[in-house]
Design a protein that fits this description.
Radius of gyration: 29 Å
Shape: elongated
Distance between the termini: 89 Å
Number of strands: 3
Order of helices and strands: HHEEEHHH
Largest sheet: 3 strands, antiparallel
Number of helices: 5
Structural class: alpha+beta
CATH class of the largest domain: Alpha Beta
Helix content: 40-55%
Strand order of the largest sheet: 1-2-3
Amino acid sequence: MSSKTKIVVLHMKEVVYTAIFLFLALALGVLVFFMFGPGKSMTASSDGAGVYTPGIYRSSIELNNNTFDVEVTVDAQRIKSIQLVNLSESTSAMFPLMEPALVSLASQIYSTQSLEGIEYPSDQKYTSLMLLDAIREAVDKAAKD
């Protein structure tokens, strides 16, 4: 008679707590799967119709008989870069707020991917509005019909 009988005593409260914990862990696992699973990236990248025609678009600005361009680079879904091109040193010296205003506008446009609700300092109001109009003109050229 060498049988070793083992008796396990379970308290009902511990069983209920364990079942609740396992259910919550399973629900969390399902939630994480649906939030970060493979279907999320596929739906975002499978959108064949883009907002823009990819390319580089320019809009000209004339100040005191000096002309320079605002260059906007877009891919199918978003605005990638905004910069000033053909800006002479004399124009840059005469209008020192031009480049800082563009940097401020561009960072807001990159983060929101929209030209609406852009904020600018009061001391750069007219410079920012002029640049924003040129950016809008270039983005309109890029937009699909």
